[in-house]
Amino acid sequence: MSQRPFRIERDGPVTVLSMDWPDRVNAMGLQFSRDFLAALDAIETDGETRVLIITGAARVFCGGGDLFELMSPEPTDIERDLDLVRGYNRVAERLHYFDVPVIAAVNGPAVGGGAGVALACDIAIASEHGRYDIFFGKVGLSGADVGVPYLLSRLIGPMRANYYLYTAGSIDAATGLSIGVFAEVVQAEQLLARAKALGREIAGNFSYRAARMTKVSMRHGANMDFRANLEYEAYVQTVAFQSPAHKQRIGEYRQRVANKRKKS
Fold this sequence. Notes:
about 260 residues, alpha/beta, 2-enoyl-CoA Hydratase, Chain A, domain 1, 2 domains, six-stranded mixed beta sheet, three-stranded mixed beta sheet, 10 helices
């Protein structure tokens, strides 16, 4: 079992969490869930991170489950396999509901469960080499893994999601942009810089509390009827009206307007 440390780099309000074992195509090993969740714990409690970026080192975002470390042509213990899959699923769940906005910078192939990691993020941008490889069926596994069916069907609709799951297909960068799984596609050498710029823009637009409220509303709103969602939003926005960040920002905005009026 190889050691596969994550790399954490902080750049002001933006933190980059990299899967950094390119010799193993950034594949998910036996300790992947434990180490990923520990890294997320450290980032969530650092008091500085306002936006999180997830990416992979070198040319691959994430190679999915390590076919040599996790899988075997020989019988394996069913309890171990269940714990393993549930651990990967906890990573997707944690990213999906993480306190701050999460950007997936998909620098290369995101294979199998690696696609689930990226799909669980709030925004995904890709290099021209980025793609989702929905390859579960090719190794005799269900496509129901790391949240991929749930997340993909909500992004592109059940018909298209079924198509990619059942054909064990790939969604390349250009196609992903056109159908909505990628918000932007940029040149490979610009990807991380663009992700950081986007993160700084988000951090500048939203206070920490307002960003969290927006994320909670987006996540829960998808599973409510419209009336319940509007009622929920009313309470969330009322709390936001009382926040110090709102009071400060509205005061600054009014002062800018007053200064402009004086000059005119």
